[in-house]
Amino acid sequence: MEHNIRNKIIIILSYLLIWALAMIVFWFFTSGSDAMSYSLMYLWIILPVTTFVESVLIGKNDFFGKGKWGFTLFFGLMYMLAEYGTFKMANNIAVNKINAPDFGMIVAGVIISAIGILLGSLWKKKH
Questions:
Q1: Is the Cβ–Cβ distance between 52 and 6 less than 8 Å?
Q2: Percentage with pLDDT > 90 across the chain
Q3: Pick the residue with more confidence: 78 or 31?
Q4: Are the C-beta atoms of 68 and 57 separated by less than 8 Å?
Q5: Which domain holds residue 109?
Q6: Which residues cross the membrane (predicted)?
Q7: How far is the CA of 32 from the CAs of 9, 17, 27, 94, in angstroms?
Q8: pLDDT surpasses 70 at 1
Q9: Which residues have a Cβ under 8 Å from the Cβ of 91 and sit 6 or more positions away?
Q10: pLDDT digits (tens, 9 = 90+) for 74-88
């Protein structure tokens, strides 16, 4: 039981660490000319792949029981916040105006996570 709790914590903390790293890289190590490469690398590759892999692991190990599907919303919100906390926030600061987040990003994150959890759950059933 203790082993299972530790693994759940590791799954969540590893995602949060990668997410935080994405924020740190944007704010401290990129410039305006890096916007396209940052977007491709973090918002289109690293965060979606991390979401997918973490979701597969959650599904495969049946972490959180039926509550595992609630993590699709967590991953969706975090994906939206990644975009909002980088490009939208930089724009907010530049124009001194608060723009609304792109809630469509939540849907993208939820879909990526749901596919991962589904595949992980199917993987568990096969073994």
A1: no
A2: 89
A3: 78
A4: no
A5: 2-126
A6: 9-29, 35-57, 69-87, 103-123
A7: 36, 24, 11, 12
A8: no
A9: 99
A10: 999 999 999 999 999
Answer whether 59's CB lies under 8 Å from 120's CB.
Answer: yes
Residue type at 61 in one-letter notation: N
Query: What length does the chain have?
Result: 127
Q: Which residues contact 7 (CB under 8 A, 6 or more apart)?
A: 61, 63
What letter represents residue 31's amino acid?
S
Q: How far apart are CA 69 and CA 57, in angstroms?
A: 13
Phi, psi of 97 (to 5 degrees): -145, 150
Determine the residue type at 60: K
Question: Hey, what amino acid is at 70?
Answer: G
The two three-digit tokens of residue 88, written as one number: 């939208």
Look at the chain and report how many structural domains it folds into: 1
